[in-house]
Amino acid sequence: MWILLYMLDANQANVFVDFVHGVADWLAGWSQDIFTMDTESVRVFLNYALPAVIYLAIGHGAAAWIRRL
Fold first, then answer.
1. pLDDT digits (tens, 9 = 90+) for 31-61
2. Please, what is the Cα angle at 53 between 62 and 37, to 5 degrees?
3. CA distance linking residue 42 with residue 3, whole number of Å
4. Rounded distance, CA 48 to CA 54, Å?
5. CA pseudo-torsion sign 35, 28, 60, 5
6. How far apart are the C-alpha atoms of 16 and 12, rounded to whole Å?
7. Region at 9 (left for phi over 0; alpha for psi -120 to 50; beta for the rest)
8. What's the pTM value of the predicted model, to 2 decimals?
9. pLDDT above 90 (res 10)
10. Which parts pass through the membrane (predicted)?
11. What burial class does residue 10 get, using C-beta atoms within 10 Å of its C-beta: 0-12 exposed, 13-18 middle, 19+ buried?
């Protein structure tokens, strides 16, 4: 959600946007600055999309494992 808010140039002084950014930073903290691009929007997309895809894969695997029980 943070990627979408960033790309749409949401007001970062807004409480909701600040909350989403804080949660995204916490979830993607381990992967910050893996990609260092000159373009800020590409850097934000790659640094937050990578953990999102990894968490999606882990969640999908956990759901499949639980379904087999």
1. 888 888 888 888 899 999 999 999 999 999 9
2. 155
3. 10
4. 10
5. negative
6. 9
7. left
8. 0.77
9. yes
10. 45-66
11. middle
Helices (H) and strands (E) in the chain, counts: 3, 0
Write the single-letter amino acid at 1.
M
H or E segment to which residue 63 belongs: helix 40-68
Tell me the CA distances in angstroms from 58 to 8, 14, 17, 40, 55, one per residue in order: 28, 31, 26, 28, 5
Angle in degrees, 0-180, between the axes of helices 15-27 and 40-68, rounded to the nearest 10: 70
Structure confidence at residue 31 (pLDDT): 85
Q: Which two tokens stand for residue 56?
A: 């999606």
Q: Max Cα separation, the chain?
A: 47
CA–CA distance, 45 with 55 (Å, rounded to integer): 15
Over the chain, what is the mean pLDDT?
A: 92
